[in-house]
Amino acid sequence: MTAAGADGGMPTWTWDLQLHKRLRHAYGDFLLDLVVRSCAQRLVLFGPSGAGKTLSLQLIAGLVQPDRGHVRVAGRTLYDSETGTRLTPQARRLAFVFQDYALFPHLTVRQNMAFSLALAKVDKVTAAAKVARAAEILALGLLH
Fold first, then answer.
1. Structural domain of 76
2. Which pTM does this prediction carry?
3. DSSP alpha helices (H): ranges in 17-64?
4. Tens digits of per-residue pLDDT, 8-26?
């Protein structure tokens, strides 16, 4: 897909992010100024420690509020400081996996994915189907 839309006009971005967040600490200030526009289905953030990857994910998920900007995913506005749109994290329907202490190292990827379903008392057959579908969507087929 090219950047131009099907009608030659504005593209329909899967990811349309413009985020600005300043954090003030005793050690100094950190300014995150992120602009992403992509038609890709998946988005990967990478960079050195302290670059703002986790903060960016927290802003997209709604766990931290940007100072200004917008978050639009698949044409749906999740946050827009100009219009006052601020969907709760639950209403955003996005998944966020924390990088520390949230996964069980003794379990496989699929077992970790199924853990919350077991807590919710979802039967094993349904849970296995849900995990398989999520793994398919996330292209995790080779991970067990």
1. 8-99
2. 0.65
3. 53-61
4. 666 788 999 999 999 998 8
